[in-house]
Every structure is written in C-alpha cells, then in structure tokens.
Amino acid sequence: VFDVAVDIRRASPTFGKWVGLEVSADTGNQILVPKGFAHGFVTLVPDTEVIYKVTDTYSPEHDRSIRFDDPAIG
C-alpha cells in the first residue's frame, strides 16, 4: 500500500504537511500515525489485506475526509 499521514493539528508548525510511505509485507516496514494526523492509504496490488492497530474504537461522528488532490496540501 501507499500509506499517507497528514498533520491536521492547527497549532502545529507542520500543519498541512504530509508524509507518504510504500508499506509492504516484503519489506516488513510500518508507519506510525500519531494522534492529530489524518491517515489514508491506497492499495498498489489487487487483493490486498491491510491490518492496522488503533488507539480506540471507531467513532463515526469524528470521521472526516480529505480530497486526495487537495491543492492546499499538495
């Protein structure tokens, strides 16, 4: 997968900045997405399984989205 984290902490000096990383079972690499960051990913091969850990249960009232090509983020 191509995994992306975006800093959405308004008071942060890195607000709106993002980092992306290709994550795969072949390399065994991982990405830690801290609180205050948006997270998204896209699979790069068919039939991909993604397993990740979270700090709390899913909260639909806090679910948001960011357009993949948002010009403010780049």
Q: What report would you give on this structure?
A:
By secondary structure, this protein is mainly β. It has a domain at 1-41. The protein is built from no helices and three strands. The protein has strands at 2-7, 18-22, 37-42. The chain has a three-stranded antiparallel sheet, with no helix packed on it.
Write out key terms for the chains shown.
3-stranded antiparallel β-sheet, single chain, 74 residues, mainly beta
Outline of the structure:
Helices cover 0% and strands 23% of the residues. It is mostly beta strands. It has a domain at 1-41.
Q: Which structural class matches the secondary elements? A: mainly beta
Strand order of the largest sheet: 2-1-3
N-C termini distance: 19 Å
Number of helices: 0
Radius of gyration, in angstroms, nearest whole number: 13 Å
Residues in β-strands, percent: 15-25%
Shape: globular
For the biggest sheet, the summary is: 3 strands, antiparallel
Number of strands: 3
Written as H for each helix and E for each strand, in order along the chain, the element string is EEE
Indicate the mean pLDDT: 93
Low-confidence stretches: none
**Helix content percent band:** under 10%
